[in-house]
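Researcher: Next sequence.
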Amino acid sequence: MGFMLEKFLIDRREAVIAEWIDRIMTEAGDQYAKRPSQELVDTVSAAYDANLSVLVHDDLKPIDQFIKKITTLRLEAGFLLSDVQMAFEIFRSIALPLIAAETTADEFLTVVTAINQCLTYTIHRFSDHFQAMHQEKILEHNRQLEEMVQARTTQLEESQRKYKTLVEEINDGYFVVQDETVVFANPAFCQMHGYDLSEVIGEKFYTFIDLESRAQVIRLYEKSIENKTVPPRTFEYLRLTRDGKSYPTEILAKVTYYENRLSSIGICRDITQRVKLEHKIRESERMAYIGQVTTSLSHEIRNPLSSVQMNLQILKKHPQLKGNDQKRIDISVREVQRLENILKELLDFAKPIQLKYQHFSMTNLLRFSLELLEMRFKEKEISVITTFDNHIPDIRADKEKLGQALINLMLNALEASSPGGCITLSCRQTLNTEGLIQVVVSDQGCGIPNACMHNIFEPFFTTKSKGTGLGLNNVKRIVQAHNGRIEFENLDPCGTAFRILLPSGP
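Model: Next structure:
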């Protein structure tokens, strides 16, 4: 009689729940260790029974109900998403070694597939609930992160779909290694590394591992082969593809017998998207905090600054002020106005971009922006060359916001140019299938240093002696809010070109 998963889960229920609770309290973050013991007993027992319903009866209703309950409970207690995900994952690391001891390789593979499908569904649904509720809290404090959070949620959903099932029809790579040689690999494993199946079978397993991770993975492999009782474990490494690129990868490996020979069986998963999402989550949280602090400080400073400006303007009209006293007042007024502009930039950065759409001509907007800066160009004797294509269709966008972005780029070009220099401004519709409107602002300045190229759009990054470092960041935010993109490049022999690409349709 073969392995019966239902009987196993029922017989091992109390033991697995007890070990699950113990490991959650020690491995899943400090928050779990602080929770009441009865709460952990209740939640872990409910999770176990919900998993049983999925694995044995293919019934998702209990796990859906549990996810709703646990999401609210953990979010209110301030848990990290990764900690709760780890708590779910611990079930796998407890159950699989026990199951492996009672199953053949084929039975084990079937059960592993079912457990991975169950946990993938659970973590996927929980992450969606957790993220949705977390978004609401973030929006209460700072609505400017709305689009970023939505994009992150979409990417998380796409990433989670990759981890649905095992072996032939999924994106997880499955392989078997005997005597350091790959003797079996599924299509996903081959695709992950950029090889055909015939090129994988017979190769040493470390051929597909980046040099940075190779020594570590070889040590783990040798240790597991020497000590056959080592339970399956998950670790991360960098896989090496055929074109020489490396990507972060997660692997679950187990030593067992395959075709009557001692073998290492592994399931590897690409976690590139997850690593990127974790980085984006950290960046989103950092930006939310910066926005809150910026808004608070700006409002605290603006009121007294307005009083100072008003009093300076009154003093400026005093008939007894002459000579240097009058100049000092003028200087003070200009500096107060400069501070006002800085505060405006900070407030623009701190609040979400809200667009007011209208139809207008991009070339007319460019001409109007040039007229506003005409005196600034003349003061520095800068000539402007314009190249606007005829018959460019009107664009539907926020005219004021785009005008702000264009003026910002022109002012940057003006500051980068030497007296008597030249700035080029062009506008055309691309010929590719996207049909984008392309605006280019280029100068003949010294260009952007290589060390700064990865940072120029970062908030508060600047190489100028004066300024907040928010100008280019605001330009990028405005362009992205219109579903466009901004690019830049250093020109040969000198100068910089900034390129804005915007959809020409609605």
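Model: The chain has a mean pLDDT of 81. Residues 272-316 form the longest helix (45 residues).
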